[in-house]
Structure formats: C-alpha cells, structure tokens
Amino acid sequence: MSDTPVLAAGCVLWRRSPVDGDLEVCLVHRPKYDDWSHPKGKLKHGEDAVTGALREVAEETGYAAHLGSELSTALYYANDRPKQVRYWAGAAGEGHFTPNDEVDRILWLRPADARRRLTQPRDAELVDELLASLRSTP
Fold it and tell me: Which residues contact 81 (CB under 8 A, 6 or more apart)?
C-alpha cells in the first residue's frame, strides 16, 4: 500500500436553467461504481490541477468550464490508497453530453436535489460551498 496520494481534480459544475433561470448543478453517473458524483479525475503525469479539472469536466460532461473559487480539497482512501481531489466552482460554458464508458448519464439538478442524489456525503458538502462562493461573488 502506497502512502503517496493519487492526485485528482474536478469541478462542481453549475449553470442557470434554460427553463426558469434557477441554479442547477451537474452530476455524473459512473456505471463502473454505480454512483453519482461531481466530474473529476486523476491528473496526468506533469499536469497541474487547474488543467486537469478543466480536462476532466470536458471529458466527463462534454461542457467547457469557467473556473471560479477553489473549493475544499477532498482527502479519502480509494482502492487502499490515499486520494486527494482539488475542486473548483465551475460555470458551465458551451457543450453537449455524449455518453461514454466512464460516464453514461449526467443530470442537471437544483442544489437541494443534487445534495440528495450524490452518493458521498463529502460531495454534498461541496454543493453548499458552491452556493456560499456564488453568494460572495459580486
């Protein structure tokens, strides 16, 4: 078992609903784990966290992200190794989702619904951080 953490990055991706203008958060479904989470993934060798977060969001959701505030870093064990995931608030830009082997579905949900749908409690806390960061942004 290695003590060196696996480095990863991602976003709490958000947009204004095209229907009513309410805030929506994007969640991804990973069939391998049958879970709902924020878009994230491991950094490539030599890749910085910002670049990795933007790449992973694009790969998993099909949307470009415009990074805002940095949110909490998640620290946990996955496959008997420590994992460190840096997160940012990410405003969704242009894009279109296409299902793939890694992510077969995405959902755009209001924050309260996103909190309930997320598999891991630590991911739900990131929704609260997103809301706080948006409130503090002029």
Answer: 1, 2, 4, 5, 6
Domain ranges (residues) in the chain: 6-136
* CB 14, CB 96: distance < 8 Å: no
- Whether 39 contacts 56, CB under 8 Å: yes
Burial of 86 (0-12, 13-18, 19+ CB in 10 A): buried
Its CATH architecture, for the domain 6-136, is Alpha-Beta Complex (3.90)
SS3 of 27, please? strand
Write out pLDDT tens, residues 35-94: 999 999 999 999 999 999 999 999 999 999 999 999 999 999 988 899 999 999 999 999
Rg (CA), the chain: 14
Q: Would you place residue 3 in the very low, low, confident or very high pLDDT band (cuts 50, 70, 90)?
A: confident
Residue 91's pLDDT is what? Answer: 98
Counting every residue, how long is the chain?
A: 138
